[in-house]
Design goal:
Blueprint lengths: L4 E7 L2 E7 L1 H5 L15 H11 L6 E7 L6 E7 L5 H14 L11 H9 L5 E4 L2 H9 L3 E5 L5 E4 L29 H11 L5 E8 L5 E8 L5 H12 L9 H8 L11 E3 L2 H8 L4 E5 L5 E4 L17 H30 L7 H10 L7 H21 L2 H21 L5 H14 L6 H18 L1 H17 L1 E2 L2 E2 L49
């Protein structure tokens, strides 16, 4: 007697099943990489599914007969992942009520069901258990007939989805209010609503040997650089990990500069931001189960751009953007310059101001650099605590904590009042470019340490090192400082300032090199 034992092994790209015979087990002779196919017997197929999906009470089997052919049918579904009404009304009821020609050949029954009985918009046929199990666990319903060694995969997904709402981390005053949710299909539809173009493409992939996470690469054919697309797909295909629970997993695994504090892949929860970047020739990666969408290539100047800039008047938007660049300088350099001047270059400070600072520091036992580092650590603790606490409490604790601790520290002569002002200015400035908070903290600490040991010379060395690092970076082959060092009008139109729409006639060069013209001149001649 031969005993068939099926064990499941997870491998990249799908589920593989190993088949053993009783005499093979004794010899440790394992037949690997042999895929299991469906049988013709409904009973054997049920046993096959029960063995693979054992100890899972959410798997539901439902057997019934066709109306007048006495052919047994079975549907398999995952409770909570499907729309029960769709299954009852569009699958079970038609099969059990509609009459089918009794003289139809057995191999034509499936075609008859697909053509005249089932009222489901999407149906696939296969006998591959890899595909069947993956489809079942993703919310589809499996329909199997007795005597047929082929399954029908019915699109009956019906899991609960969070309502579309404005992302709390990217609120704006004027503009659209919708944001991405955790559903891949919903997110794709939000992008499609904004770009109703046949050239908008979505390429689906599956990542994670255990989670089988669905992702989609979105781009506009004819605008996007095909070399970047090829490189992106190669990097994604090389990902070998057991699970993807967030888009940040992919961001870290495919980034160009993994040890740099600066990001070469952007992220957003807003469909309008993704649509705008797709229209510039960029790519988007949408991950099922997370509302955060990745966009690439991401360059340095995008840190200072906001979707609000494109909904406001260009003069007001340009002022706001200049303020963000100023905030970057203040948040990274203020503590370092203050420490350098107080410690090494007192002669550069006006005498009245120097006397005021010296009087404020009287009785403080710590050097200026220790004061600065200590106050910055306290500020970051308050900021992180405010984020982690419930929303109604977090803001109150952050504000009250900063006031109380700052005042108490000054009165106790642990720190001086000027350093509290410097750290407060530094922290407030960093809020203007919050997406860069990680890089700002790293740069601020490096500048501060260099200034504490070498004065302004150390600060200048830090600036030189920062520029060398930024200039040497690439984002999928695109220079990280693209356009910021250019003197051409069309290339700086959307960098430090936001030029009016009638002047922004070209897309970013090197990114959308296949179709660089966004808007033609009124005369019909393209702008050069």
């Amino acid at each position: 007697m031969v005993i068939l034992i099926i064990t499941k092994k997870l491998v990249k790209g799908g589920i593989m099943y190993r088949i053993f015979k009783d005499n093979d087990l004794s010899k440790n002779n394992i037949q690997s990489n042999k895929k299991v196919k469906l049988k013709k017997s409904l009973k054997e197929n049920r046993k096959l599914f029960e063995d693979i999906l054992r100890n899972d009470d959410t798997i539901i089997f439902r057997e019934f007969e066709m109306n007048n052919l006495n052919v047994k049918c079975m549907i398999i579904l995952v409770d909570g992942m499907v729309n029960s009404e769709t299954i009852n009304e569009n699958v079970i009821k038609p099969i059990m009520s509609k009459e089918i020609n009794k003289n139809i050949p057995e191999n034509k029954i499936v075609d008859e069901l697909l053509d005249k009985v089932l009222t489901i918009d999407e149906i696939k046929r296969t006998s591959d258990m890899d595909v069947i199990i993956g489809s079942l666990l993703y919310g589809n319903t499996i329909l199997i007939l007795d005597g047929i060694d082929e399954a029908m995969l019915l699109s009956t997904k019906g899991w609960s989805v969070r309502a579309i709402s404005e992302p709390s981390s990217e609120r704006i005053v004027k503009g659209p209010r919708d944001g991405f949710s955790e559903s891949l299909i919903v997110n794709l539809s939000l992008i499609r609503r904004r770009i109703s173009n046949a050239n908008l493409k979505f390429k689906h992939k599956e990542i994670g040997t255990k989670t089988k996470t669905q992702i989609s690469i979105s781009y506009i054919e004819g605008l996007a650089n095909e070399k970047i697309l090829t490189e992106l797909e190669n990097r994604i295909d090389k990902i070998d990990i057991d699970g993807i629970l967030s888009s940040n997993y992919i961001q870290e695994l495919i980034t160009d500069s993994p040890f740099s504090p600066f990001e070469t892949i952007g992220y957003t929860e807003r469909p309008d931001v993704v649509a705008g970047r797709l229209l510039e020739g960029r790519f988007a990666i949408i991950v099922d189960g997370t509302p955060v969408v990745l966009t690439l290539p991401f360059i340095f100047m995008e840190y200072f751009q906001s979707n609000q800039d494109y909904y406001n008047h260009y003069i007001f938007a340009s002022i706001n953007r200049i303020l963000r660049y100023l905030a970057f300088i203040l948040s990274t350099s203020t503590p370092a310059i203050f420490v350098a001047l107080i410690t090494f270059h007192q002669e550069m400070i006006p005498t009245p101001l120097l006397l005021s600072i010296t009087a404020a520091r009287e009785g403080v036992p710590f050097p200026t650099i220790i004061e600065a580092i200590g106050m910055m650590v306290v500020f970051e603790l308050l900021r992180e605590g405010g984020i982690r606490l419930p929303e109604p409490v977090g803001a109150t604790v952050s504000i009250v904590g900063a006031l109380v601790l700052g005042q108490a520290a000054v009165e106790a002569k642990f720190v001086s009042a000027p350093i509290v002002i410097v750290v407060a200015l530094t922290g407030i400035s960093s809020f203007l470019i919050y997406p860069m908070k990680g890089a700002i903290i790293v740069i601020r600490i490096i500048f501060l340490l260099l200034s504490g040991f070498l004065g302004l010379y150390g600060y200048i060395f830090g600036i030189i090192g920062l520029f060398i690092h930024l200039m040497s970076m690439r984002a999928f082959g695109i220079p990280y400082m693209l356009n910021l060092t250019s003197l051409k009008g069309q290339e700086v139109k959307d960098t430090v300032i936001r030029a009016p729409w009638w002047y922004m006639k070209d897309r970013p060069n090197l990114i959308a090199d296949k179709d660089p013209v966004r808007k033609s001149d009124a005369s019909g001649k393209d702008s050069k």
